[in-house]
Amino acid sequence: MADIKVLIIDDSASVREALSNIIESEPGMSIMGTASDPYFAAHRLKSEVPDVIICDIEMPRMDGITFIRKLMNQRPVPVVICSSLAETGSRMALAALEAGAVEVITKPKMGTQRFLLESRTRICDAVRGAAQARVERVAPKIDVQAKLTADAVLPPARNARTIERTTDRVVVVGASTGGTEALRKLLEGLPAYAPGLAIVQHMPGTFTKAFAQRLDGLCRIEVREATTGDRLVPGLALIAPGDYHMIVHRSGAQYRVEVREGPLVSRHRPSVDVLFRSAARAAGGNALGIIMTGMGDDGAKGLLELRNAGARTLGQDEASCIVYGMPKEAKKLGAVVEEMPLNRLGAEIMRFAQNDIPSAVA
């Protein structure tokens, strides 16, 4: 298999050097070139196209977000943002994702080289995920910034198949790479009376509140960052806070969430596996589990537990995924009852809410 060719765009020579050393020392990756700003990069792109671009946001002559917009409109290439602005300026990071970036890595304003070296695994994983991503031509927009082990985190297991089916429904959703835009499309299409949703999107802690606020301004349902005690009710979607797991609990016929600290599960916090497994134990057949675009296997085992508990389980299909990783792994385990394109998931959620639920287990 050919190496993943990477182009690095950053105005800092030390950052370009550190990233180059990381990429060159990783098997299966190589540096196609480096550039100090998007104009130099554009000149290089005329003669050769990389598999992945690593790009800063704050650069001379043209900022990274403007570059991504132009790139996605003219010659789409997967982009990983690596920027100090993403640490405190989460709206900027969300704007980059909406413009077409596949992944965002935050870096501190000080001690950048050491940080990059310590984040080697995350950087290489992001590059591999981006290389698998399907990026399409994006029309220009006027204003992008507008308007643990799981058992260590979860309550004791119960026999979820003995849970009485009720009229209350809960939808649990997990996504990673490509999920910010996929979730926007999904939630924008839901009516105000859609069932309550609990969502894990792999995202740093500084991003999730702004991400939820952004969706809330676009959707007919209410979208907000989850806090412990929030009830899952129709017309509300709760986003797990970054760096915290989200767990679904049942109290009578009601479902509430808890956010808590804990070890990484499936290499993530929040973890989709934790959310799905908690829903299997709390809701059983009253739950609908959806695993969406993302790299890795977080959520696959949890979705299987959901299915075995009698829940309906869906996977986003390969054609509509930015990265067909998480749904693929879930399908391999036999966790997915049915795969379908992103544009059908909303209708399936409403079908589920209306109690038209086919058998979850063949």
Automatic annotation (TrEMBL):
<keyword id="KW-0597">Phosphoprotein</keyword>
<dbReference type="Pfam" id="PF00072">
    <property type="entry name" value="Response_reg"/>
</dbReference>
<protein>
    <recommendedName>
        <fullName>Protein-glutamate methylesterase/protein-glutamine glutaminase</fullName>
        <ecNumber>3.1.1.61</ecNumber>
        <ecNumber>3.5.1.44</ecNumber>
    </recommendedName>
</protein>
<dbReference type="InterPro" id="IPR011006">
    <property type="entry name" value="CheY-like_superfamily"/>
</dbReference>
<feature type="domain" description="CheB-type methylesterase">
    <location>
        <begin position="164"/>
        <end position="356"/>
    </location>
</feature>
<feature type="active site">
    <location>
        <position position="298"/>
    </location>
</feature>
<dbReference type="Pfam" id="PF01339">
    <property type="entry name" value="CheB_methylest"/>
</dbReference>
<dbReference type="InterPro" id="IPR035909">
    <property type="entry name" value="CheB_C"/>
</dbReference>
<feature type="modified residue" description="4-aspartylphosphate">
    <location>
        <position position="56"/>
    </location>
</feature>
<comment type="similarity">
    <text>Belongs to the CheB family.</text>
</comment>
<feature type="active site">
    <location>
        <position position="202"/>
    </location>
</feature>
<comment type="function">
    <text>Involved in chemotaxis. Part of a chemotaxis signal transduction system that modulates chemotaxis in response to various stimuli. Catalyzes the demethylation of specific methylglutamate residues introduced into the chemoreceptors (methyl-accepting chemotaxis proteins or MCP) by CheR. Also mediates the irreversible deamidation of specific glutamine residues to glutamic acid.</text>
</comment>
<keyword id="KW-0378">Hydrolase</keyword>
<keyword id="KW-0145">Chemotaxis</keyword>
<dbReference type="InterPro" id="IPR001789">
    <property type="entry name" value="Sig_transdc_resp-reg_receiver"/>
</dbReference>
<dbReference type="InterPro" id="IPR008248">
    <property type="entry name" value="CheB-like"/>
</dbReference>
<feature type="active site">
    <location>
        <position position="176"/>
    </location>
</feature>
<feature type="domain" description="Response regulatory">
    <location>
        <begin position="5"/>
        <end position="122"/>
    </location>
</feature>
<dbReference type="GO" id="GO:0008984">
    <property type="term" value="F:protein-glutamate methylesterase activity"/>
</dbReference>
<keyword id="KW-0963">Cytoplasm</keyword>
<dbReference type="InterPro" id="IPR000673">
    <property type="entry name" value="Sig_transdc_resp-reg_Me-estase"/>
</dbReference>
